[in-house]
Amino acid sequence: MRILLLADIHANLAALEATLRAAPPHDGVWCLGDIIGYGPKPNECVARVRQLEALTLTGNHDQAALGNIPLELFRNTARQALEWTRQTLTPENAAWLAARPPLRQLRAHNVTLTHGSLRDSIWEYIDKPKTAYENMAYLETAYGFFGHTHHPAAYHLQADGMLVKLTITPDHPLTLLPKLLFNPGSVGQPRDGDPRAAFALYDSSAGTVTAQRVEYDIVATQQAMRQAHLPLPLAERLATGD
Q1: 2-237 in CATH: which number?
Q2: Rounded to an integer, what distance in angstroms lies between the CA atom of residue 180 and that of residue 193?
Q3: Among candidates 168, 175, 182, which has minimal Cα distance to 132?
Q4: 9: number of CA atoms within 13 Å, CB side?
Q5: pLDDT 10s per residue in the chain (242 long)?
Q6: What gap in Å lies between CA 20 and CA 229, rounded to an integer?
Q7: For the chain, which residues make up each domain, given as ranges?
Q8: Side-by-side strand order, sheet with 197-203
Q9: Which residues pair with 172 in a beta bridge?
Q10: Interatomic CA distance for residues 46 and 41, integer angstroms
Q11: Contact in structure between 7 and 184 (CB atoms under 8 Å)
């Protein structure tokens, strides 16, 4: 089975559509949360993910837009965007988002999906080896796929107990090994210095996961953000992927 892995779309419809056009043939879609927040097209992105019938998690921005997390916990620009998103999100899309879990164990695939980490599926960032190592104790399946950091990453806990951060190269399959944590990166708000939309393909038959990148119309998203009067720094950072 071939699964398209998406994370952190953040209401960036142009990036999402470019990703779907570039994606290799696949049998399903897993979305690791934060469909909304930051970007100018929350309803359109939720509708598109619903149309895909994707297995979808919730993220911290999704929960904040639903009123389940205090906006005071977010930085100023993120908070302003979430205030706008709360007012813009339709009741139907809000109800659909509210039904998404933050973590799922897929025993048939021997995979755990989470937005944040395995021990804190909403808030914790697996953004350094120490945190990845600590989360391995919570990994009850062979593999874990996560989002939230906006950085593609892979960590492997070896049989000798040593944690290794693996090198990820777009379009080069990474062999899945037991006790592996993998992040496909962000579709709509990359922060690894590469402004292209990030996603990945999980191939259970081949035992691989392949990170991929695709260019999208950043200017169109920036224009839409300006028209919605979203914070200018959020629009500007899309051009640099920072």
Answers
A1: 3.60.21.10
A2: 24
A3: 182
A4: 32
A5: 999 999 999 999 999 999 999 999 999 999 999 999 999 999 999 999 999 999 999 999 999 999 999 898 898 999 999 999 999 999 999 999 999 999 999 999 999 999 999 999 999 999 999 999 999 999 999 999 999 999 999 999 999 999 999 999 999 999 999 999 999 999 999 999 999 999 999 999 999 999 999 999 999 999 999 999 999 999 999 999 98
A6: 27
A7: 2-237
A8: 55-56, 28-31, 2-6, 197-203, 208-214, 174-175
A9: none
A10: 9
A11: yes
Written as six digits, the tokens of 4 are 């398209």
Please, which residues bridge with residue 2 across strands? Answer: 203
Q: Which amino acid, one-letter code, is at 44?
A: E
pTM more than 0.85: yes
Which has the closest alpha carbon to 26: 47, 46, 45, 53? 53
Residue 165 neighbours by CB under 8 Å, 6+ apart: 129, 132, 153, 154, 155
In angstroms, rounded to a whole number, what is the distance separating the alpha carbons of residues 43 and 218? 19
Q: How far apart are CA 85 and CA 93, in angstroms?
A: 12
- CA distances, 9 to each of 15, 35, 157, 206 (Å): 8, 5, 28, 27
